[in-house]
Design brief:
about 210 residues; alpha/beta; Rossmann fold; eight-stranded mixed sheet; 6 helices; 8 strands; globular
Length: about 210
């Protein structure tokens, strides 16, 4: 597996690497909210499974599935993190038939993914399809200049303003509780702080009869 700087690969990075620490912190944050069947969509090389299941195979988690578009990343994940309760499969996050293949999930993690996807509205719809009606979605993305403004990052299609990100999720059928991240700190946003990433804790909207 070649380290290009796009993906986080802990084994190839210094332990104090800022990007690594930020990514790890999101999984530590998620660990408080995960349960049941867990889907890590665009899981990369799979190191998130090691964090989520490190306490003698975390009893809150029944099953962890990591899906990534990269066949190489999945092969690496299977070799490095293919322990009890885990499964890694190559797949497209936009594939609407994933729910038919793998069923619905109690928790879905989507970290640093949506900014890479042109069809972001369809991606959110697919997350909704895959999530149980009482489930939890945890999704993150960097702050940016705006959804329709060209992005400076060579790896990103776009980067969102806060209101755009929240509205995208709400329009996709989710209730959103927003947190923000700066370094290793994830917290409810404070007006006097500058943040670099958004982390949304989402629940499916319940229909009112």
């Amino acid at each position: 597996m070649e380290y290009t700087g796009e993906r986080v690969i802990p084994e190839f990075m210094k332990v104090d690497n800022g990007m690594l620490l930020e990514h790890v912190e999101r999984y530590i944050f998620a660990k408080k909210h995960v349960s049941g069947r867990v889907l890590d969509l665009a899981c990369g090389v799979g190191y998130g499974a090691d964090i989520l299941l490190d306490e003698i195979y975390n009893k809150k988690i029944d099953y962890y599935l990591g899906i990534d578009l990269s066949r190489e990343a999945i092969a690496y994940a299977r070799e490095m993190y293919g322990f009890q309760k885990t499964q890694f499969e190559q797949g497209d996050a936009l594939n609407s038939s994933l729910v038919n293949q793998y069923g619905k999930f109690d928790t879905i993690l989507s970290f640093e993914t949506i900014e890479h996807i042109e069809e972001d509205i369809e991606y959110v719809r697919n997350l909704k399809r895959l999530l149980d009606k009482k489930g939890t979605l945890i999704i993150s993305t960097p702050f940016g200049q705006g959804r329709d403004i060209p992005c400076a990052s060579p790896f990103h299609i776009r980067q969102y303003r806060q209101n755009e990100f929240v509205e995208l999720l709400e329009d996709g059928g989710f209730e959103v509780e927003l947190y923000c991240q700066r370094g290793q700190r994830i917290e409810k946003p404070k007006t006097d702080q500058k943040y670099y990433l958004m982390v949304a804790l989402c629940k499916p909207k319940q229909r009112v009869i």
